[in-house]
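Bit of a strange request maybe. I'm writing a small parser for structure token strings and I need a real example to test against, not something I typed by hand. Could someone generate the tokens for this chain?
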Amino acid sequence: MKRIFFLWLLGLLSCCSHLALAQTYYEFAYKNQTGKQCYGFMIYEDDDNCTMRVVEVSKDQEVTASKDIKYTGQQGVEDGQKYTALVPEKQEANAPNIMFFWDKVKGSKSLELIPVFCFDLEKLDIQEPESFGEIGLADMDAEYLQQFYEESEPTYKSLMKAKKRVVRQRSAVAKKLGDGTDIYRTVMMLLAESGVNVDISNLPTATTQSNPPTEENINNDGRSGNTSAQGFDGNDDEDDDESDDWNDGDGSDDSDQGSTSNANQGSNATIPDGSGVTLHFVSVINSNVQDIGASCERDYENLKSELKGVAQALGLQFKDYNVMGDAYSRDAVSETIDGFRPGSNDVVFFYYSGHGFRFDDQQSRYPAIALTTTAYEDITENYLLMSDIYKEICSKNARLNIVLSDCCNTPIGVEQPPAYETGTLYGRATNNASLSRLGRLFLLERGNLLATAASPGETSICDMMGGVFTLAFLRSLRKEVNATNSEKVSWTNIVNNAISTAYQRSSEAGNQQHGLKETTMYR
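Reply from user aminoacidic:
Good idea to test on real output. This should exercise your parser:
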């Protein structure tokens, strides 16, 4: 069964000095211990890779800037309230401890921890920041960054280069906004112009597809509804005389453990028809179960938000088929999988979050998913094997199939002692992605990927922010598409990083989980 632990995650801030990672950027305003005005610029990876630059402004407007201040994460309890603190490795006058109390959370769809400051963890002289907010690459300019960095510094150069990439790509798309087809067409044209092997002869035109990218919610009672998706915002900015990252990284051969599926094979990235591409998100979420239901629903919200954002950014149709709540049952899952019909150029993303198990004589190493919501239902009569779901999804012959499960993989009734997470996996930002890297993953890749959170005999842990494996997957996806990343882009990179990160975090929590995967990817 999937276990829930109210983990001491940070999940919101920290910052990182490695520019090839999944960065998020934050800015702070606060007073130091002597009352001087300070402004902080933070680069986020996780609380094992944290730095901050601070600018101090005196009353006579003298400005002093710091070098990188390294932070590490610590956990504690104050008056019965759990908190996570980012603590500078070396105490400096302008370097506060940044604290997050886990009972101070805002938002329902997207949980956000509220930061507070203190300069002494013993005294806990807590103060609220004057301001705190996220800043995206597109919103940075040279004048802003030069408050914190010299122009000759590698971090400054990397941020400016990534900013120009993001702005240029968004600007190219913004000029083509229309019915939504133009977004997709623009991304594909730019990829083709950069030398990627793309057949653009049958790309859709503005009259081929009359509606903008939409989200179609398909529930188990057969009802459906359409919601217009907004286009990707963009604005013109200075040109970059360096080569554009529409030509960054072409991936690699992703075959590693073999596949039991019927793969769509091909030697290049062609667009076989003019009808565009749909991203089908098929999710099975055990949201009503008492112990982990809230965490499973958080997984769904996190992943749906991510994939819907990808679809909007690339001009794809987005369809959300979900089995959850009172409709949760084996029959509903089977009907949903049987019922949807992806096109030959579509993307299918299947996801399960809930309890998982395995039979003593089970041959497949992948778990069975428990399609029960109470202890009074017979689990041995209400389940499906992830390996069978994978085969059925792949048999529909979509161009790209991603099948994930975040659940335990233990015999029925096996329990493990509770543990506590010590690190963070989740970052909020999705606005620093390279459209070219997204395009390569979702428009050019073809094949199949199956992955699960735990090996046979292992549990999978989660907390109020979601499952450790799911959060690791999201973090790895964002790392792969980040505009500062110049490595080759591939789904194998994403799943490998997700499995290794989940293993590291679960080990720190006293619960080692070795994820499983198999992929067959083609270009």
